[in-house]
Amino acid sequence: MADPTDSTAPKDAPPKPPAQGDGSWQGPRWSLAGLALTHGLIFAWAASKLPWSQWSTFAIVCGALAFGHFATALSAAARARFTAWIWRGTSIFALGLLLWLGWQLTSSASYLAGLYGDLGKGLGAAVLAVLGLAALLTLPLSIWGLAATWDARWNRAAAGSVAALAIVWIGGAWQTASAAQATPLPLPGGGEQRVYDQIADAIPAWEELPPIPLEGAPRKNDPDGPRPKLKLPPLWTTEPVACVPAYDAVDTGQAYAVLTYFVPASEETIQRRRRSAVGWRLAPVEPASRCVQAPREAIVEAIAEQLRAEAMAGPMKIDLLSGMALLRSRNFVLDMVALRPGLDGICDADRCLMPWQLTATNQFIFNEPVGWIPDFRFGVSPVRLQRALGGSVPKEVLIWDRERRRPKTRKKEERDQPLIAPDGAEEWGSIEGLLRVETVSIVISDDAEVRELRRLHEREVPLSQHRLALAQRRAERYIAEAQLANGRFTYTLDPFTGKRRTKSWNLPRQAGTTLVMCELGTDEHQTRTVATRSLAFMAKHARAAENGDAAVGGSKLLALIKNETKTEAHLGSTALPGISYFACREHVGDRFDTLAAGLVRYLLAMQRPDGSFYPKYDVATGEPIDGPEPMYAGGQAIFTLTLAEKLSIEDPEAAAAMDLPDTKTLHDATEAAMNYYAGPYWDNFLRDFFWLEENWHCLAARASLGHHRNEGYEQFCVDYMAYKSRVPLRPDSRVAEEFVGGYSLGNILTPVNTPTVGYGEGLAASMAIKQARGEDVSEDVEHMKAIIAFALRQQWNPVTCFACTPKHLAVGGFSESMSAPEIRIDYTQHAWAALGHGGALIWDHIPPSHEMDRTRGEPEEPEFPGLTAPPAQDPAQDPVQ
């Protein structure tokens, strides 16, 4: 018998399991044992860590393969005579796993491509990467194992089997994709645009409908005086509507539409509002949803007749059902994305919820698989969907569902334990039998303008100077209105319920919002008021170092610490506020100069000899605390130092009065920091492929253009933005039109607004640097147009806010994404910065106005309400003195 490990054996000799007379294994020993052991460890880790749930098919299969690899490693090391059989069996099993995983991935990709239209280039590449990694971990060792231990040879039958498998594979993938697509429902002829035009022409004139009373009852103490003004309640309802399309609707030509509009409030609603602190200020109307059914050619007129019969002259929402698909449960992950965020509604046997209702109730972001990335939220929960449709879901099922979809909500001591499904979990946790419905989404604003929506935002938003300026004014007003009396900004706002979080704040976020107001505010009184309040609020957290005077020339070293019981001052919590104190100086004067100079001395004390910065400083000991530098903080520190240097150059008297370190000290510190980040900080192999978040370095480099040029530091920003330019979705990315310009991997995950507008902020700085260097920015202008156009679509405006709460201003704010409506102050701050700085660079490249601005009567925003300045503070009580 020929030894397959012997290179002198005849090439045509069939390989046999090597053995000697005693039957021991004489094939590869330590090389096989090492490789098999490595593969076993990899698959054991994959089985235990990758699946979300215990004992999934993936975990069982990977665990079995890991066991096979471990058995191969042990038998090869021991030269056991049955090594050939174990290696061969493991190799066959590994190839089976590759085929199974390949089918699961391709069928899942086909299903998602059929549902979403296209995966997009990013997700397509991700699927190929996963398949490639799986092949790398299975094919080489399996082919070696089969070649070394099996007699079988390639023949025509094997070739035919492979061809047949390929045909079945492709056919199955095509069938899976087709099954995901919705069956079109009857609509008026001519496509979606024609439907929109027909409805716009058919809706009754406002004069035909009863007006909504917007004046309250006379005041008891002044019956002849002016009546109080009432506000419209939100056109928001979570009630499902009985409008389930019949399965034979295509054959019968029956069309369906769900209308939501205002009707006179019921006595029960009026009494409930009277018991509310703000309910008495609302107009005596409430939203109602109705289902309209009619033959295809009569549906538009039927909608108009229903509005004439019951609706009042106010905002209206119209959803024409354009498609339906009966859902089949596939697996845990695919069921999460069985509904397209903002595009698909859901029905059970009796009732339906429209896509905008699911978005407004956060149904598309219920899964949080990665606890340490809280903003990574996506996908639906069948349990929550059925509860929203009116199902009586047991409490224990709701808790179980929440804990498996949001593992971080489990108690820490229970997170490593199996999650036991309660009775009824399988029934409630499945999407089987629910009906996915697609809609044409139309809104009629309170001024009778008709707009088509896409994912709860306007489908078309013109990129014009008019619209850009309007968006900036709205963002400015939102931030001003979000400030509380004590100077702190409201952190989050649910635009539909009005629920706010006002106590979740931190110093960098507070300072960043203040900085943008000072940079881009157009109302000087408002800017000064907002800035003064915010800076005074942050000043209350200033702490002086007890033993650090010598390090900064004998003057006070000041740092900002949020918690008064702590003594550790974090770099970012002082560096970013430092920027705002210098940037806002032109608006607030010199009242915070002493604090600003103390913050600069803190940064000087935090700088290492190589130009980088320590992460923390202990104000009790007067010593920096070593450790890794936090993200963002290095660029923020340079930004503060360069603004201080600029002030010392342009106004030396003011710099001396505030006891700012001398110009040379500031210049040398800034130069050392710039050289560090331009040089050793990211001078490695990864620079050609991957960067961290470096936006603040770009902003610092732009702020230094007039007084402190550093070519290497500027190039650092330009290179970083060149890297980031590959991420935003483009028209050729094969994604939905409303995704173009956003940050995402494809069609399945909706783009997140903050990374998108953050790219716009950094790109604006990079463009300013290039212009200062005389470089071409024409390509950057086109990129910026896409970013600004995306941001304009994402901003809440009076049209898209048809269901927003009247309690707090939502117009002008920005949400996390099209699927996550919660507005956050930092989302809005970054978006305004992109609109302001980026918009200025494309201003001359966009038209002054657009046809849509005129024909759709975009209203001018009212004057910003004046804000009362805070009372003057006694200098003896001033926290900065």
TrEMBL record:
Entry keywords, A to Z: Membrane, Transmembrane, Transmembrane helix
InterPro entries noted in UniProt: Terpenoid_cyclase/PrenylTrfase
Compositionally biased tracts (Low complexity): 869-881
Region entry Disordered, spans: 1-25, 846-881
Biased composition (Basic and acidic residues): 847-859
Transmembrane segments: 54-78, 85-103, 123-146, 158-177
Protein name: Uncharacterized protein
